[in-house]
Every structure is written in C-alpha cells, then in structure tokens.
Amino acid sequence: MHFKGSLKSASIAGQQVVSTLSKKAFALGLGKVPFLVRIKGIGKGRYSAIKELKKSGLNVLKVIDKTSVPYNGCRVKK
C-alpha cells in the first residue's frame, strides 16, 4: 500500500494496512504469537487501525502510544 499526502492519515488507509499485515502474519504462521504494537502519530487512521487489529484475530498483547508531545512549544517572537 502506497498512500501519499493526506491519504496517509485517512481511516481507510489504517484499515487496509492492518488487514494486509494480519494476512501476511497468518500466512507466516504468526497468528498465535502475542504481539506488542506501537502506534506513533496523530490522525483518524490510528483509531481505525486499532479497531482493525482487534477484528483481525491476531493475539495483541499490548498497544503502546509513542506519539511525541511538545513540552515547551515554539520560541516566542521578539
């Protein structure tokens, strides 16, 4: 899947990527292995990707949010 521009954060992109990933994992025989999933970034696609993970049947151990948060913001103009 190659999504460019604003389509990368769309909900359909998250669903398609996770469904492709789960099909490849089952083909390799990784359906029973507990997975640790890291989500990074903002957008509508992350929530639909987590939903699709739940529906796919993979054994997800933990979902970790690794989105960086600015702690001090931008420097103020003179």
Structural class: alpha+beta
- Helicity range of the residues? 25-40%
Instruction: Kindly report the name of the CATH homologous superfamily.
Output: Ribosomal protein S11/S14
Largest sheet: 2 strands, parallel
Radius of gyration: 16 Å
**What is the CATH C level class, in words?**
Alpha Beta
Mean pLDDT: 84
Q: List low-pLDDT spans.
A: none
Overall form: elongated
Domains counted in the coordinates: how many?
A: 1
- The total count of helices amounts to 2
- Sequence of secondary-structure elements: HEHE
The spatial strand order of the largest sheet comes to 1-2
Task: Summarize this structure as a short list of keywords or feature phrases.
single chain; alpha+beta; two-stranded parallel sheet; 78 residues; Nucleotidyltransferase, domain 5
How are the elements arranged and paired?
Blueprint: H1 11-27, E1 35-39, H2 45-56, E2 60-65
Parallel strand pairs: 1-2
Helix pairs in contact: 1-2
